[in-house]
Design brief:
- Helices cover 89% and strands 0% of the residues.
- The protein is mainly alpha-helical.
């Protein structure tokens, strides 16, 4: 499991790379649009000598449509980058909640005299299993375990049993 600091470093690195790519793409679009405008002007000036008005209008419209298509594609790219950034932020927030819940659990175990590295690791594995089996977020399960630990003298196995019972009771009371 990645720590919050590792997720933040990863988020910053990935966001920086995406911004750099977007900046390069924007510059290329601006350069291409400028060259396209120059080419259209030159074409329009030269075509007036040899082409009909209709042909000149069609050439100008084609250039305009091409630049609109490029701008639309970059709009989609910007939306995709924004979505990825938002998802990375959500992941960071989730990791922070999880980290906080596990710290509370460790503190509660220590205060109740039940803390060992093995107990902490076992309960972290249990929270992940409960999340996979029930869909209840692991930080919620860890928070519940911290509360149980603070009001009882249960060891890790007792906490797991009590938590499973509470989850089972919750699901049995749900109305479908």
């Amino acid at each position: 499991m990645a720590t919050l600091e590792e997720l933040v470093v990863s988020l910053v690195a990935e966001t920086s790379q995406l911004r750099a790519e977007l900046d390069r793409a924007t510059k290329a679009t601006i350069d291409s649009t400028g060259k396209m405008d120059d080419a259209i002007k030159a074409f329009s000036e030269n075509s007036g000598k040899n082409l009909s008005f209709f042909e000149t209008s069609m050439a100008t419209m084609t250039g305009f449509l091409a630049s609109e298509a490029v701008l639309g594609a970059f709009g989609l790219l910007k939306d995709a980058v924004s979505f990825v950034g938002a998802e990375l932020v959500k992941g960071g927030e989730s990791a922070a909640k999880q980290e906080t819940a596990f710290l509370k659990l460790a503190n509660s175990l220590a205060l109740s005299g039940q803390y060992t590295t093995e107990a902490q690791k076992s309960l972290q594995d249990f929270t992940n299993t409960m999340e996979a089996e029930t869909g209840i977020a692991d930080d919620v399960v860890a928070g519940n375990l911290a509360i149980l630990s603070s009001i009882t003298k249960l060891d890790a196995q007792g906490l797991k049993t009590a938590q499973k019972s509470a989850i089972g009771y919750t699901f049995s009371c749900k109305r479908y």
